Amino acid sequence: IKKIENLPKGFDGINKVILENINKLEKHLLVKLREITKSIIILISQSFKLIIVPILSFYFLQDKEYFKNKVCMIIPKKYRDDALKLGREINLVLNSFIRGQVITSIIVGLLTMVGLLIIRLDFAIIISLVVGIFEVVPYFGPVVGAVLAIIFGLLESPSKAIWGLIVITIIQQLESNIISPKIVGESVGIHPVFIILLVLIGGSYFGILGMLLAIPVSAIVKIVSIFIIDKMSEQQ
């Protein structure tokens, strides 16, 4: 830069342009360096979570009685039996919810595989497997399936992509209006109509996380509410 600044006066215009471009390049590199650094920090943080969560889960499961006893010691004696009863009921409904969600995922994955095999779409089994996995988030599996069906369908022909989209759309309608509300609703003791409404409300306010947590949180609120009402009735 010093050599550029020492150019003869006749080159002042060129000197100014070069210095401006160098400054712009420096600023651009600094911005990119910050973005790369931020991305690396986020990546390390997420990787750490992926590593630490299974480790913590393993130790919690291995020593669950120890942690259960520690939590019980914190709760006052007069509330301990009620807290344990409530905890068992919540644990039961959450297990039922997970079981219902897994069954729904398997059914949706199988229906997707059958439908895509009927239209002879390539990679039908892979697509159905991905759909089944993403079905853990309510209504999200068919969306991913539609994208994959269109992409792989276009590799063959536009008509195959259209047929793939039609198959996924039909399955999505079945899943959102019949399969998921019926199976998950029965597993947690909530009417299918309320299941649909809860997922829609959760998604509209909290996005994918809201859709994922709407049903279990509502089931827990229901159990706690019934428990409180029963206790109030006993005291009257």
Textual characterization of the structure:
The chain has 236 residues and is mainly α. The N and C termini lie far apart (86 Å). Helix content is 89%, strand content 0%. The model has no long low-confidence stretch (mean pLDDT 79). Helix 4 packs antiparallel against helix 5 and helix 4 packs parallel to helix 6 (140-156). The protein is built from eight helices and no strands. The protein has helices at residues 2-5, 12-62, 64-74, 77-118, 124-134, 140-156, 158-188, 192-235.
Query: How would you state the average pLDDT, rounded?
Result: 79
Segments where pLDDT lies below 50 for 5+ residues?
none
Beta content: under 5%
The secondary structure category is mainly alpha
Write down the overall geometry.
Answer: flat
Main sheet characteristics: none
Measure the end-to-end span: 86 Å
What is the rounded Rg? 28 Å
Q: Care to count the β-strands?
A: 0
Number of helices: 8
Order of helices and strands: HHHHHHHH
